[in-house]
Amino acid sequence: xxxxxxxxxxxxxxxxxxxxxxxxxxxxxxxxxxxxxxxxxxxxxxxxxxxxxxxxxxxxxxxxxxxxxxxxxxxxxxxxxxxxxxxxxxxxxxxxxxxxxxxxxxxxxxxxxxxxxxxxxxxxxxxxxxxxxxxxxxxxxxxxxxxxxxxxxxxxxxxxxxxxxxxxxxxxxxxxxxxxxxxxxxxxxxxxxxxxxxxxxxxxxxxxxxxxxxxxxxxxxxxxxxxxxxxxxxxxxxxxxxxxxxxxxxxxxxxxxxxxxxxxxxxxxxxxxxxxxxxxxxxxxxxxxxxxxxxxxxxxxxxxxxxxxxxxxxxxxxxxxxxxxxxxxxxxxxxxxxxxxxxxxxxxxxxxxxxxxxxxxxxxxxxxxxxxxxxxxxxxxxxxxxxxxxxxxxxxxxxxxxxxxxxxxxxxxxxxxxxxxxxxxxxxxxxxxxxxxxxxxxxxxxxxxxxxxxxxxxxxxxxxxxxxxxxxxxxxxxxxxxxxxxxxxxxxxxxxxxxxxxxxxxxxxxxxxxxxxxxxxxxxxxxxxxxx
Length: 532
Known about the structure:
Elements: H1 7-17, H2 21-41, H3 47-58, H4 61-67, H5 76-81, H6 86-102, H7 105-110, H8 112-117, H9 125-151, H10 156-183, H11 187-209, H12 224-229, H13 243-260, H14 286-316, H15 319-322, H16 326-336, H17 341-373, H18 377-381, H19 387-421, H20 424-436, H21 439-455, H22 462-476, H23 484-487, H24 505-527
Helix pairs in contact: 1-9, 2-9, 2-22, 4-11, 4-14, 6-9, 6-10, 6-11, 9-10, 10-11, 10-13, 14-17, 14-19, 16-17, 17-19, 17-21, 17-22, 19-20, 19-21, 19-24, 21-22, 21-24
């Protein structure tokens, strides 16, 4: 039998399963690119303002480490999109890898792929289908983003190079996802390995970019993120560099296919370590089990949030020099809604950190559904554990985890910005308060996952769709002058803009109450439906 037979059928099945998820994330990336460019075009009306902003950015090691270096100081396109170059490549790469794992290892873990393999489905069909769907998604993201950037007035060649930058990063990590899916027996572990590769790639890129004397620039070439960045959109448009990530993907895909032939369906090359026959006393409650399941992910996210907070706080001391024109200052203050350019920047960035913390809350709450579909929930509920105890344990960890993440980021930014500005004793409490006010909106989004799990478990991944919509409204609603009624749909739009802004307790109370109501409704819905 042909090893690829059935690939077309599996592609159609994957597209049907992701018929909402993929289009929504394509729209999110395209609008993010176009919105960022549109917002920046009027901020730097002349070459001198661009040069001043670019030099300020390049002179800040924190900014260079976080976003990358601006290669052409006169380029409007590069200045408009430099924040989305390396950071956007990471997000596209993460999406590509997760799509591959979702349609390979996740299907094996659930037992569905073994059933399909009993029919006329070749050995490589699932992997080939996953790669086609993932690669097609990131290529479409790149192409549509390029067309959108051309539409807002940026040069066609640079726009195509930028689209290729995102697409090439996605292709690289589609290959990484294909390989990690062969290594473990669990999709979460495979995604964890992918996250480690992404993190290492980002750090290598940061080390190479922030090299003061240029002697360490070669380190960027060890990173798939660095390869994509070296396409240098709007700063030379080096299209030939795309051959490097394409070759990288080809090698990883070939290795993945070789590994498929060496293992059984459902098995991984790295066997899971068997646990002890008897559970430790610390695992004798549903909450302890939930903590054990989530703690590794929380530790990794926590370290990343601490680092992000430190970087944001360090950048804050340089933001006044980066935002050079009056229109630029007006835009940052409009986004942050506060008095003072530094506070505006910190408020805006803390809002972005809140969005990232929400992603952890969604991921943690979705563990309820994955435990249920993997048939691990029903045996647990057959014991003395009640439904409320089981759901509550995971929800509590999700809520606690998001609080830890956002407060760790606030503490890091307070320490870093306080040290840079010379007022740490004043800045740390302000940044912790700015972080804390993000929690009601974050918990509301987590509550949406719980209520979907309770009443419509098959639609629970739709929480990611809602999250994408909230992100677009929150980040670009003011730029595109959306009606206030539309802006009010996003819970993040009701969060007080701190530090520096006016604080009102009413929206905090309302958001918390809605979050509690959604979570309680989810509990009630789960108690009335069948498990599975």
